[in-house]
Structures are given as structure tokens and as C-alpha cells.
Amino acid sequence: NAGVTQTPKFRILKIGQSMTLQCTQDMNHNYMYWYRQDPGMGLKLIYYSVGAGITDKGEVPNGYNVSRSTTEDFPLRLELAAPSQTSVYFCASSYRQREQETQYFGPGTRLLVL
Amino acid sequence: RKEVEQDPGPFNVPEGATVAFNCTYSNSASQSFFWYRQDCRKEPKLLMSVYSSGNEDGRFTAQLNRASQYISLLIRDSKLSDSATYLCVVKKLTGGGNKLTFGTGTQLKVEL
Question: What are the chain A neighbours of B100 within 8 Å (beta carbons)?
Fold first, then answer.
């Protein structure tokens, strides 16, 4: 199993450009998540999905959109990139809601908006 | 007040030392607790879950005090490879998946 994979690893965007961050998991996990991590800060939840066709907002959803058409894929869309979106983005997944169930993270995408 | 608070460090310790990290959480509805490890420029990885009775995994011991809303991680016989940032994580079960709240992390540097 590859686990959780993310592409691209690094990207530079100009203000106002758009892009999609890709996330795929091969563990047949129902739940998937997108986080951002700013320097010296904890991870903040952007969006999450409890299954194909179902998505919901997290703590910091503004400026982002997601879709979940399949169990495996959970892309994150930035429509109008802003410097405040410069961050490291992590995708994660988990199987179900058992108490000690935790999340498995992808390697991250570093985004710089200039 | 932050939901999960940690001393950011860095903690600089010699190899072989014992070091302890503390974490406090503000939401009494928090149900599960974890320590994650994050290496520089890498993704977080689960180090260990934290159980109410306390638990040990090799050189690592985790403790939970629900009354004080306090979690700790003890590392014995520190190795150079233990150098990383340790994230305290709490979870609330909700209808929308298991939402994790992350602390900002405590940086550990183990030196020769």
C-alpha cells in the first residue's frame, strides 16, 4: 500500500491563480481530511469528508473547495490564490470512528503564493 | 485560550537523558488523546495513543490526567533520532468524523 499520496510536492502560484492539490489513499478509508500548517502553528482543518459524495467545512474553509467523487480521491481546490494561503497542506485519512482510531497523513504539499 | 497548549521548546538534551513534555487541553469533552511525531519538513506520524491508565511503548511513556486536563510524554534514554517536534493531539467524536485538534508542538533536539 502506498498509503496517502499527495501531488504536487511543491508549487509556486501567483496571486489570483487557481490550482488543485491532489490527494489519493489506497487504504479504503471512509474519512478524509485536508489540513494546513503554518510555521509555528498547529494543523488547522480546512475540509473533511465522511464518504464519497459527502463533504463538510472545517475550521478554516474560506478560499478553498473540495469534492469527493470516489472513496480514494479528495482534491482540494484553490480558486483565487492569496498570499495568506502560503502554507504546507496535508491530506489525511482514517477508516472509521473508533475511539482510538487515528489519522494517516500524506507527505504534504508546500505552496507559496507570490 | 488555545484548545491544546504545549511548551514550544526547544528542549536541548544530551543523548541518554530523560525528557518530559506536557500538554493541556481546554475542552472537557475531548475523548481520545495522542502524541504525534513530526520530523522537519515531513508529515505528522502517530507516536502513541494515550490511555487513561497510562501506557508505555519502549522508551516512551504517556500519561493522561482527565481531572486536570493534562497529558504528558516521557522519553527515556534519548537518542539522536528522537530529535523532532512532538505534537499533542486531542480528539472529539462527532457526527462528522473524528476531528483532531493539534497543539503547536514541542521541539526536541538531542545532542551528542
Answer: 43, 45, 102-103
Neighbours of B50 (CB within 10 A): 24
- Is residue A81 within 8 A of residue A74, CB to CB? The reply is no
Where helices occur in chain A by DSSP H, the ranges are none
CB atoms within 10 A of CB B65: 12
Count CB-CB contacts under 10 A for residue B53: 7
Successive 10-residue mean pLDDT values, chain A, 114 residues: 93 97 95 92 92 93 96 96 97 78 91 96
CB contact under 8 A, A90 and B43: yes
For residue A23, give the C-alpha cell. 490527494
Q: Which DSSP symbol is given to A73? A: B
Instruction: Measure the CA–CA gap between A69 and A52, rounded to whole angstroms.
Output: 5
Provide the 3-class DSSP secondary structure of residue B7.
coil
Q: What are phi and psi of A84, to 5 degrees?
A: -65, -15
